Amino acid sequence: MSLDPIRQSSLSDQVVERLRTEIVEGRWRVGERIPPEPELIADLGVARGTLREAIRALQYSGMLDVRRGDGTFVTARSEVPGALARSGGSIGDVLEARAAIEPQLARLAAERADDDDIARIAEALEYRSFVTAEPPTRENAAVWAQADAAFHEEVARAAHNPILFEIYAALLPRLRESVESAITRDGFSREDPRGHEEVLEAIRRRDSEAAGASASANLAATERWDHAERAGAASR
């Protein structure tokens, strides 16, 4: 079997690699706006079309998000989020993925979190409690979902496992989407409203088993609601 000859990479491919390196090595952090187009064109010495082609490629991969009128933002340090976004899957699929990861992250956070980590988790929980004090509606669904995801992200960060955090960070966009979708469905309810508080309390006590159990129980309550809602929809 013969192999195809190696082709010289295109200029846009080289720009993709340069921009990707800035993200992967942390010089452009997740959530930050990358430099404006004129600055990048000048720094890289390429045409506008070449730069835009590279940015489109990184947007497709899930690493960048182009927001019209606001700039281009880093959304992930790897291509995993893009792959997850294209994989499809139901709310139930996302819940199963969370159930495989979140309890272990909570256990590790209870063992490894420092005072700053715990303060960030508590702050995220306080904001979540403020936002979710009002019943979820289609109007506040995105804010509701973001506040919920922010709490889980801080717990994941406090686990101090960079590989697990990278995997979980890649799941966060799907988590937000699934929560936003769930809370706008008729009959949504939270069976265990103190589940998140119990996770934080266990982390503060350095009780890893309780932290993992609370995370599992919180997800199980949501899974029970999802199964019941889907069963009801199928019978209608």
Automatic annotation (TrEMBL):
Residues covered by the HTH gntR-type domain: 9-77
InterPro entries attached to this UniProt entry: GntR_C, TF_FadR/GntR_C, Tscrpt_reg_HTH_GntR, WH-like_DNA-bd_sf, WH_DNA-bd_sf
Sequence intervals crossing the membrane: none
Top-rank taxon: Bacteria
Gene3D superfamilies (alphabetical): GntR ligand-binding domain-like (1.20.120.530), Winged helix-like DNA-binding domain superfamily/Winged helix DNA-binding domain (1.10.10.10)
CDD domains xref list: WHTH_GntR
Chain segments carrying region Disordered: 204-236
Skewed-composition ranges (Low complexity): 210-221
Keywords: DNA-binding, Transcription, Transcription regulation
One annotated GO molecular function: DNA binding
Pfam family, one: GntR
Annotated protein name in UniProt: DNA-binding FadR family transcriptional regulator
Organism: Leucobacter aridicollis
Organism lineage: Bacteria, Bacillati, Actinomycetota, Actinomycetes, Micrococcales
